[in-house]
Amino acid sequence: MSRNSQRFFTGPHAGVPPSYEMLKEDHEVAVLGAPQISAPVTTTVVNIQPETAVPDHVVWSLFNTLFFNVCCLGFVAFAYSVKSRDRKMVGDVIGAQSYASTAKCLNIWALVLGLLGTIGSIVLLVLVVLPVVYQAITRASPGW
């Protein structure tokens, strides 16, 4: 077998001590030396801003538009929510926060007024309408 022939099997069973490859690499680094660079090293730093989470309240506005649309507050809140989402897509975080804050305020008012209206309607039904209906039924059928 000649010295120039290649081995098909490498590794610990090839007959070469495991430290031979490491010594060979150290020798190559010592002979070649450290890489010589004549040009100055320049670096580029890219600052990536973390995407701020601006809630746009679209789902809440849609809910208020469908169920608690007192004085169209839910619809107006939905419009501001869409504007907030558009500003966020463009990259205008301050504008998105402004529209989101307005949408949140309108949603709160729509929800409070809607709940008060619903509770008021239930109280009116229980305290006024049901007693009148009960009296009308008892007058119509005196045998009960």
From TrEMBL:
UniProt-recorded name of the protein: Putative interferon-induced transmembrane protein
Major site of localization recorded for this protein: membrane
Keywords, ordered alphabetically: Membrane, Transmembrane, Transmembrane helix
Membrane is among the record's keywords: yes
Any one cellular-component term (Gene Ontology): plasma membrane
InterPro entries given in the database record: CD225/Dispanin_fam, IFITM_antiviral_protein
One Gene Ontology term from the biological process aspect of the record: response to type II interferon
Record localization: Membrane
Organism: Desmodus rotundus (Vampire bat)
Protein family (similarity comment): Belongs to the CD225/Dispanin family.
